[in-house]
Specification:
The complex is a heterodimer of chains A (130) and B (389). With 130 residues, chain A is mostly beta strands. In chain A, 6% of the residues lie in helices and 38% in strands. In chain A, the strands form 2 sheets. Chain A has a 5-stranded antiparallel beta sheet with strand order 6-5-4-7-8, with no helix packed on it. Chain A has a 3-stranded antiparallel beta sheet with strand order 2-1-3. The chains are: A mainly beta (130), B alpha/beta (389).
């Protein structure tokens, strides 16, 4: 599958190299996720790319018992989550390396790169220190 | 109350939907249209606006133009809107603009989908996720969430999780909302689920996406609905008891849950404030509320964001019986998406029928003001309609 396009190529190249990249607007200083050809805050064109710390907190989560496609049925239950990065933007992701019952909203998490159930290299998050 | 309403509802209709009927989507639309004609003696040739959804289960290019051909209508304005569960509410706002501007005199707001029929041979969670929300897709433009296996219940489950974190709300409180709407559906002979349930029953139903159980998730249904929106003058020619649009409000902040500033506080408050101000009413004048209840979390947050109770108080508000028939704010009197039918236009149909006093056992006595609240994209899109007699 071709997941990258001219706007998102650098993000996915970063993922392949184990780097989490965010767009940063040189005009207003805002970080943003996901990749766009403009800053959605101040509408300046072509934000630059910066490597993120990879650290954040668990904003919210759900434990999925019924997955959306055959690839996800065998791995259920799994945790979908929104993580708020230290730089500000939030990402949709999965929490890995943790028992769902042990998760707490607000707990620190950090990025880890893995191959997903569909064979794609992806940024995931796990509890900090796990 | 607004002293001089400019827009009226002259009639409503519904298809015989519910569980898999074997009907096509346009067939459901046609049934709703015929039911509308039975409700209201409008000459079909005078319908000069036709607004529809853009159906999910049976998509069709330029759907609204195909529907006009199928029904034998020749409007001067037509459009197929895609606003998720708030599509009929969005079309009501568009219809109101067409009527108020004088561009149209009689606009049919129609809605329908045959999800139960089309999805009956598939895993319904998979089908709803991949065909309605495209949540199973990992290809652009879904490459930033699809690869993580999102489902609709998971997204609204995250809403519930965050609500529990911020306010200490409990699974029992979310379940209490499902209990109320099922009790209302039990009184509605057309409801898909009519067996009353207890909080314990809801919490014992299978876990779909923690913390949401099966009985907290919207039904998957076949449905069709049709609403005739017109001028007050024409509505009064057509029937003795038209319902008036007293106020409407809208607010939209985006699509993806992880882009929303909050997943417990949405622009619902803005659209409700706008609608109540336009109608010139206060919240305690609302006799009946029909709100989009895709999940119990949606209903909890909507009650709070609309200002019927404070932030974090939705659970206690429900537990005190306020949203029950006989309570201070009877809500989803037909049973809602959780009990009546998973279709989107029924909230407005039910609000209209409540104001016309036609609802039998589930009738709110003397209802004068009914509010229909549509939300979509978690609740990042919000449309509030205040209707009155």
């Amino acid at each position: 599958m071709e997941r990258a396009n001219t706007v998102t190529q650098q993000f996915w190249d970063g993922v392949e190299q184990g780097k989490l990249l965010l767009q940063h607007c040189s005009a207003c200083g805002a970080y943003q996720y996901y990749a766009r050809p403009l800053c959605a805050k101040c509408h300046t064109a072509e934000p630059e790319w910066r490597e993120a710390s990879g650290n954040g907190v668990l904003y919210s989560y759900s434990v999925v018992y019924r997955g959306p496609s055959p690839a996800f049925q065998p791995i259920a239950p799994y945790v979908t989550a929104i993580v708020e990065l230290d730089e500000g933007p939030r990402m949709f992701t999965n929490i890995v390396d943790a028992e769902p019952e042990s998760l707490r909203v607000g707990e620190p998490v950090s990025v880890v790169f893995r191959e997903g159930p569909e064979g794609l290299q992806l940024p995931y998050f796990r509890p900090a220190g796990a | 109350m607004a002293t001089n309403p400019k827009v009226a509802i002259a009639g409503v209709g519904e298809a015989r939907g519910g569980r898999a009927t074997g009907k096509t989507t346009v067939q459901l639309y046609a049934e709703a249209f015929l039911d509308l004609l039975a409700d209201c003696p409008v000459d079909p040739a005078s319908i000069d606006g036709v607004l529809t959804s853009s159906p999910d289960a049976e998509p069709h290019h330029m759907f609204s133009t195909w529907l006009t051909e199928y029904l034998g209508l020749r409007p001067k304005f037509t459009s197929a809107v895609q606003m998720g569960g708030a599509t009929p509410h969005s079309n009501m706002a568009l219809a109101a603009a067409l009527i108020e501007s004088g561009r149209c005199r009689a606009v049919m707001v129609a809605d329908g989908d045959n999800r139960a029929t089309k999805f009956s041979r598939q895993d319904k969670v998979q089908a709803m996720s991949s065909q309605v929300g495209h949540l199973g897709s990992i290809e652009p433009p879904h490459e930033f969430d699809g690869p993580y296996g999102p489902t609709a219940p998971a997204l609204y489950g995250m809403m519930a999780t965050r609500h529990m974190y911020e306010y200490g709300s409990t699974p029992e409180q979310f379940a209490r909302i499902a209990v109320a709407f099922r009790a209302h559906g039990a009184l509605n002979e057309r409801a898909q689920l009519r067996k009353p349930v207890t909080v314990e029953d809801v919490l014992a139903s299978p876990m779909i996406a923690w913390p949401l159980h099966r009985d907290e998730c919207a039904l998957i249904s076949d449905w069709g609905s049709a609403i005739l929106v017109t001028t007050p003058e024409y509505a009064n020619e057509l029937r003795r008891d038209p319902v008036y649009l007293l106020g409407l409000g809208q607010a939209h902040q985006g699509y993806n849950p992880y882009q929303a500033p909050s997943i417990t506080s949405f622009p619902i408050s803005e659209s409700a404030d706008e609608a109540f101000a336009a109608a010139g009413i206060s919240r305690d004048e609302v006799d009946v509320l029909e709100l989009y209840d895709s999940f119990t979390s949606t209903a909890m947050v909507t009650l709070e964001n609309m200002g019927f109770c404070g932030a974090g108080e939705g659970g206690a508000f429900a537990e005190a019986g306020n949203i029950d028939l006989g309570g201070s704010l009877p809500t989803n009197t037909h049973g809602g998406l959780l009990s009546y039918n998973g279709g989107h236009g029924h909230f407005i149909v039910e609000a209209t029928r409540q104001l016309r006093g036609e609802c039998g056992e589930r009738q709110v006595s003397g209802a004068k003001i009914a509010v229909s609240q549509g939300t979509a994209a978690l609740a990042s899109s919000s449309i509030t309609l205040v209707l009155g007699t």
